[in-house]
Amino acid sequence: MENCFEARFVGRKDELRDLQAAWNKKFKMFGIFGMRSVGTSRLAKEFLASVSDQYEELVYVNLKKTSDLAAMYVNICAQLTIAVESNPNDDKSWESMLVYTVSTRTKQYVFCFDNGEYFIDMAKTHDPLQNLCIALIKLNNVNVILTSTTKFQLERLRHIYHVCELQPLKPTETSELLRAEAPGLDYGKYMDPIVELSEGLPLLILMITSELRDDGGMLTPHDMAQLLAEYRLKVLSREFYPEEERVADVYRLFINRLSPVLQRRFSELDYIPGSFTAEEARSLLDYPTEAVVKDHVLVPKLRGHFISFDPANRRFNIQGILRESLKTCFALRHIPEIRKRFCKTFTKVMTSISRRFTSQDYASALADFAFEQPNLQKLLLEIQYTTQDTYTFFIRMATESAVFIEQYLAGNSEDFYSQCHRAADRYGNEMDKAVVDLAVGSLYTNIKADLKAGYTKYSAALSILKGAGKSLQLATAHQRIGYNLMLQDQNDHAINHLKCSLAISLVSGKPFELIALQALNNMGSTLTKLGAFEEAEKYNFVSLKRRRKIQGENHPDVGMTLNNIGIMYDQKGDIRLALKYFQEALDIKKNSKAPDLSLVASLTNVANVYLAVEKFDEALNALDEAERILSKQRFPQVHLIAYLNDTRGKLYFEQGNMDKAAEMFENAVRGRDKVASGKTTHVESLVHMMKVAVKKGDTFKCIKTGKTVLSFRNDLIKQRPKSRFLTECFDCLAKVYEIMGDDVKVRDTLRKIKIELLRLEYLYTCDCNEDMVSEIRQQLEDIECRLKALPHTNDDVTNTNTVI
């Protein structure tokens, strides 16, 4: 049997064992099928070698090099030394002559038909080959082996016909073959990317190792990993290799065997970057029904190993190297029409997933998103090609799927909405702009932590929506502005907007239910911040009751509401109840398979409560679990990783491990600086770094970090007027100045704390938050005591009015 590369035989233990078991059970025919260059011929050779003592003569026919049926029969007759005085007139005559001759002999034969697709895929040769195989296996002294990329269907003979579907090599087998073919080469950290890019296909693996061996190892594994990632088809198709070894030529010829219609159809399907369902294929290819697209396109080429099928999830895919070959060798025609169908198809998918994401079907929505993610990411990028025909799809996504895009496709979202806004200028109206502004405001508020920019976008949307009467968008605008203002500590204004949202949503029926629930939650959180715990309790528990009625007992959003109740009790100082509700929230989220990021938030809240009661082991367990979840995310969630590092830093700080605390806080600062430089979370971690520096006596580090914090002072006060981080910053500075013995700077810093506390006292007095006012006044008394304890100077009078 021929093979371009006679490499070491690796893997295939299960397949070889199954073939041998079928042989021992007296199966007569063995079909070995798989995609081009997956190793069907090599497996057949190894199989024949393993049973070589059980047959006497092999008749090998390479159908790739056989021009027609007559040539095939002449070849077989030559191997069997059958004299052919004159060619029979038809296929049946050839078959009868051959079968009769073999039946009269006592030898045990194996007929191996290699590369069977060259006859199976042709109408005039398919049936004669099939008939010959059936006739041969009826003989007691014959077994038949057939290798092919196209599956040979013989259902009525399945009791004596063993079918082996050959898949690409497993990663461990791929690594073994790479090492065997380039012995002594240290792949290092580049083994995994090379394994992935070889796709488990022996031809690709052997071409890769050939490149690595040639020219004295001029190309290193690092070079190869980079070249494969950027120019795989070109690198493995050098012109000095024989045509049958060039990867591009092998797969181009494979695709060329398709009809022009199917070549075009698969080029169009390649426009979908990920796997796809039959319905998505139907929609993109504009077939009338799923049944038709399966019958005409998907099933025939599934049997031809051109596409793969995942039966558990009912999804199809085009194999990676074939995708590259389609893009390189076969131009896609009618791109605007294909793009329109793609946008139509996957806008429907996006809205379906986002709608189910907020219902009891959220688990199936997230499961679908795991497959659809590359398709939906591409969908957002299609906005750059917007036309009048596709504009409606994008504005629909901005209207119906904004929350889902914000949470799961944030990397592409800002550019998407920016392009939407420009498209609205060309094709839309003012209401469309309002919808886009709402989405962008949410992105700035929830992901980028730029509350002022978020508020500006929300306000722009509200100014448009006010003129159009009561609507879901108007209720949404008020709810989101209320939430944004709550985060800015502008609680009275927040409550006014939340009341406006509730006034619309509570009386407007089912479509408004989710906005009403969100507004109720936000009211509870805002009142918690004001210290109005009785009112907060009322709103939180009304929200909980309504959520359970609408969404069921076991829904992630029920867990989210319980989490908010936990925060309320934590703020109230009732640690026992806070932990109870945090834990209940976490249990519901776990049981309901809530989104991973929601679980991480709950686990971190639980950890913080355990820290408050000095249960460090329990806190560490919660943080470790959260970190395990985050480590599995395909796209790093920088803000959550930073939140986790900051909480872990607090744990080490409380345990007295200042070196580890410093490391965690520095990691948190780097992460928060990337996503929210100068915002509250970033400043929080900077202040934590200062506290560690104070403990370690690192006065230089504390002062330097303090200057960074104070550079954000004005923006911090605008973003979060009631933030306590400025007083904590000044307190750290006062302590290091005490260490340094600089009484003048200590006094000046304490006075700055006093001014900051007076500002906070005024704000909380306006909110009627007596608990906070009382706490701040106690702190003011403490500052006065510290000031009196300092030595007096001649500057005391003038310094009393120090302005920061």
How many H/I helical runs? 39
Q: What is the SS-derived class?
A: mainly alpha
If you average the pLDDT, what whole number results?
A: 89
The CATH architecture term of the domain at 13-165 is 3-Layer(aba) Sandwich
Uncertain spans, ≥5 residues at pLDDT below 50?
797-804
Rg over CA atoms, rounded to whole Å, is 35 Å
Keywords: Repeat, TPR repeat
GO molecular function: ADP binding
TPR repeats: 559-592, 642-675
InterPro entries: P-loop_NTPase, TPR-like_helical_dom_sf, TPR_rpt
Structure notes:
- InterPro entries: P-loop_NTPase, TPR-like_helical_dom_sf, TPR_rpt.
- TPR repeats lie at residues 559-592, 642-675.
- GO terms for molecular function: ADP binding.
- Pfam families: TPR_12.
- Keywords: Repeat, TPR repeat.
- By secondary structure, this protein is mostly helical.
- Among the domains are: 13-165, Rossmann fold (3-Layer(aba) Sandwich); 171-249; 258-333, Arc Repressor Mutant, subunit A; 429-551, Tetratricopeptide repeat domain (Serine Threonine Protein Phosphatase 5, Tetratricopeptide repeat); 741-804.
- 68% of the residues lie in helices and 5% in strands.
- It contains 39 helices and seven strands.
- Strands 2-3-4-1-5 form a five-stranded parallel sheet, with helices on both faces. Strands 6-7 form a two-stranded antiparallel sheet.
- The longest helix is centred in the last third of the chain and has 24 residues, at 743-766.
- The chain is elongated and about 125 Å long.
- The model is unreliable at 797-804 (pLDDT under 50).
